[in-house]
């Protein structure tokens, strides 16, 4: 009986109360360390959500990690699925969701974001928070995020800003570790979204960069075809003028 009370049924896994508490304590300690160096992950998540909301329908979160973002997101959306390649990280996130009392509101999927296991146009919104600098092939993941987004859907892409990366470097160096990351590709993502007829807004604050993009056209293929046609037309114009 006692054991049954100490366990929390969450989908196919049983989460022990002591694991939930220990995981939460670890996360709080990590967050407190970040704050001592000037990075407040709660404020970072809040800043991104403030820019992204409202988010309607079924939302996909890419790169679950410890669940800082998806646990906050799940409080604001009707349905959320989160995907990560690492079972260990998703277990931490699941424990944190259980601590927040919302584990049943999040669907956890283990998969490689370079090949998302959903049909084109499945989600009303697709989001990612502080995961992109961890990806081996961010361009492919970015393309996959756009593929699974419905026409009219919203993309929310956020990662550390240059000041955020500087803080992360300092924190990791103080721990004798490194936090390598590729240079910010936000200008590239922004240009690609505009090329594909997305309406794009860009924000920077709380050591985060954020792109909020709304898909305007019904078909990404159509917009890329339009782009090709536009390129051909402008080349033809150039040739005519030369
Ligand atoms: C630092 S976490 C992101 C932070 C997280 N969004 C949060 O709210 O705490 C980065 C995550 O990206 C995941 N990841 C890396 N490559 C991936 C891939 N190809 N597909 C899915 N997840 C991936 C890692 O396993 C890790 O859990």
Task: Give a description of the structure.
By secondary structure, the protein is an alpha/beta fold. 46% of the residues lie in helices and 24% in strands. It is built from nine helices and nine strands. It has helices spanning 2-6, 17-36, 41-52, 68-73, 87-99, 138-147, 162-174, 186-195, 220-241, and strands spanning 7-10, 13-16, 58-62, 79-84, 106-110, 123-129, 149-160, 198-205, 208-215. It has a seven-stranded mixed beta sheet with strand order 5-4-3-6-7-9-8, sandwiched between helices. The protein has a two-stranded antiparallel sheet with strand order 1-2. Strand 8 and strand 9 (208-215) form a beta hairpin. Helix 2 (17-36) crosses helix 5. The chain is globular. The model is unreliable at 1-12 and 220-242 (pLDDT under 50). Bound molecules: S-adenosylmethionine (SAM). S-adenosylmethionine is lined by residues 63-69, 83-86, 89, 112-114, 129-131, 134-135. The site of S-adenosylmethionine (SAM) has 20 residues, from helix 4 and strand 4.
Structural Rg: 20 Å
**What is the overall silhouette?**
globular
Between the first and last Cα atoms, what is the distance in angstroms? 85 Å
User: Which class of secondary structure composition applies to the elements?
Assistant: alpha/beta
Q: Count the strands?
A: 9
CATH topology: Rossmann fold
Which CATH architecture would you pick? 3-Layer(aba) Sandwich
CATH class: Alpha Beta
């Amino acid at each position: 009986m006692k054991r049954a009370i100490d366990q929390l049924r969450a989908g196919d896994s049983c989460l022990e109360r002591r694991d939930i508490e220990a995981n939460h304590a670890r996360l709080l300690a990590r967050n407190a360390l970040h704050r001592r160096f000037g990075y407040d992950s709660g404020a970072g998540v809040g800043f991104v959500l403030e820019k992204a909301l409202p988010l309607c329908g079924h939302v996909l979160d890419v790169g679950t990690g410890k669940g800082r973002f998806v646990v906050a997101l799940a409080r604001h959306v009707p349905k959320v699925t989160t995907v990560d390649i690492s079972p260990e990280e998703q277990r931490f996130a699941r424990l944190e969701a259980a601590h927040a009392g919302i584990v049943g509101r999040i669907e956890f999927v283990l998969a490689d974001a370079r090949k998302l296991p959903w049909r084109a146009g499945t989600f009303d919104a697709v989001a990612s928070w502080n995961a992109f600098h961890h990806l081996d092939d961010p361009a492919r993941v970015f393309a996959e995020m756009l593929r699974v987004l419905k026409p009219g859907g919203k993309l929310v892409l956020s990662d550390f800003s240059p000041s955020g990366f500087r803080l992360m470097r300092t924190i990791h160096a103080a721990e004798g570790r490194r936090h390598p990351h590729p240079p910010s590709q936000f200008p590239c993502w922004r240009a690609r979204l505009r090329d594909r007829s997305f309406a794009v807004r860009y924000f920077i604050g709380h050591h985060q960069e954020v792109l909020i993009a709304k898909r305007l056209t019904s078909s990404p293929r159509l917009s890329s075809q339009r782009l090709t046609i536009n390129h051909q037309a402008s080349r033809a114009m150039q040739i005519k003028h030369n």
